[in-house]
Amino acid sequence: MSATLWNAADAVAATGGATSRDWQATGVSIDSRTIAAGDLFVAVKGDNFDGHDYARDALGRGAAAVLVERDLEGLPAGAPVLKVGSILEALNSLGRFQRGRVSAKAIAVTGSVGKTGSKEMLRVALSALGRTHASVASFNNHIGAPLTLARMPLDTQYLVSELGMNHPGELGPLSAMVKPDVALVTTVEAVHAGHFNSEEAIADAKAEIFQGVPEDGVAVLNRDNRHFPRLRDAARKAGIRRIVGFGSDHYADAFLVHAEISPTGSRVQAVIDRRRLDYRLSAPGKHWVMNSLGVLAGIAALGGDVAQAAEALVRVEVPKGRGQHIDILLPKGGALRLIDESYNASAPAIRAALEVLRMTRTGAGGRRIVILGDMLELGDSAPATHEGLAPAILDAGAELVLTVGPNMARLGAALPKSLHAGHADTAEALAPLAAALVRSGDVVLVKGSLGMKMARIVEALTALQPSQATA
Question: What is the pTM of this model?
């Protein structure tokens, strides 16, 4: 039986709300479709939905109580309701209250790329050392961060919080809520550039993560990134006394000695906090190798056993849509390999994915096929950034390229005509062409920003597999 996470009295104390009756909750949910019996349902409002419309459904699915900001009609008589003035402020209050009564050591991770992968490595590695609670999926914004805290079990020993932003002023309040002992910044690149005047401005926004770190806390920074000095100075200005660097530079506190990188993973030799370590990663690509250095440096800063943590990293699985390799049997025989990078995209992430594609062997008669959707939120730099991917595509040995969106059309025009095999305005429109084009032995990379819905193409390719083959 699950332990009680929230009771009515604590929830009222945290939020200042009023409840209709006593209740106990074993979890917290904002989605009535996936709610578990015993969860507190928080009726969050989004751009296209209002959780209040699903409160009755949540109760029907076994919710312990519903947190709302207005009176609702049609609820069962005596239904357990916690009414507050503002849903978002109440969720923040739940998060702050829970963080205040759980003494877990906390590490927060941000960066232009590599946040979720690093968070997953931290979750797996720290779980080998003690009871660990981490953000699920990419719950890293003004809703995801407090929700992660509100869900934290009282006996948590390690907290891993992924924090994201696309505008200035977002990270500071989230970091102040999490109160991380260690802040890890994976890297700073021209991502969300449409909302910033320069990469330096992006670095300054990422540096807001230091606002919640205490003076005896630690900032873990990428020495290979050109913004390292700027981030280091920002951390010191925030009062952080200890700065830990990671990267390929042997002057770093955590540095790479050697890596054998293959499409199925890597063998890594590294020095972490003056200790030589040998470990394996199942996730492919040098970007995973370099991010693992930051992860282990962060664990060392928390006082964790880095050798035990490094040994656990082999169990890290690539999150869905972030580089999974999927073998798809084809109706006429044979199979293709799909590299599913459909969740999101930036120029550095696309180049990293293309490097994995380059290393991945094709089958007999197969080709390397690249299917790319627009990178969003790049502002005036979008045309040049997209066109600038052409050399990396050629270096990866791509034999066919399909593109989605107006800016990827610019990339297509920059490629040899024999290489650019098709274009569409939307992923849904391109999906039939992609499905018709592939053949046995192909290796297919699919990547694009989340808003481009490149998962539609992944679905079309996986649907090629005969149903009896998946039974």
Answer: 0.90
